[in-house]
Amino acid sequence: QVQLVESGGGLVQAGGSLRLSCAASGIILNINTMGWYRQAPGKQRELVADIDSGSITNYADSVKGRFTISRDNVKNTVYLQMNSLKPEDTAVYYCNAVRSRRYGGSTYWGQGTQVTVSS
Questions:
Q1: Are 13 and 118 in contact (CB under 8 A)?
Q2: Which of 113, 119, 83, 118 is nearest to 96 (CA)?
Q3: Contact in structure between 12 and 117 (CB atoms under 8 Å)
Q4: pLDDT tens digits for 2-11?
């Protein structure tokens, strides 16, 4: 079992910055991809960014150039640095982790952290 705990959300003004953290614990061996998703009211959950075991990253077009995902495999933590925040970034942000397929391919989710950006 893997537990994911997010932190770092909050209320900021447009143009500000936040850094989200997600700490993984439990049976963390062979976690492949970790990422951040978000869900705004009335919208589907969407991928914001992810990073695989080789540190290859992927970003939604809406956050490219503003957000940076990183991963510390020693601390078992993934981060999302969010700069130049916009009101449309307001959402609940969820940490996600996927175990390698050869070890079961299980998907895990954090409880979410609220990010609110005021205009």
A1: yes
A2: 113
A3: yes
A4: 999 999 999 9
Amino acid at 91: A
Is there a contact between 67 and 80 (Cβ–Cβ < 8 Å)?
yes
Exposed, middle or buried: residue 71 (CB in 10 Å: 0-12, 13-18, 19+)? buried
Distance separating alpha carbons of residues 12 and 117, to the nearest angstrom: 5
Is the pLDDT at 26 greater than 90? The verdict is: yes
Amino acid of residue 92: V
pLDDT at 85: 98
Give the model confidence (pLDDT) of 29-55 as tens digits: 888 899 999 999 999 999 999 999 889
Beta-carbon count within 10 A of 4 CB: 24
Can you tell me whether residue 44 is helix, strand or coil?
A: coil
Task: Give the pLDDT of residue 29.
Answer: 85
SS3 30: coil
Distance from C-alpha of 118 to C-alpha of 62, rounded to nearest angstrom: 18
On the question of pLDDT at 1 being above 90, the answer is: no
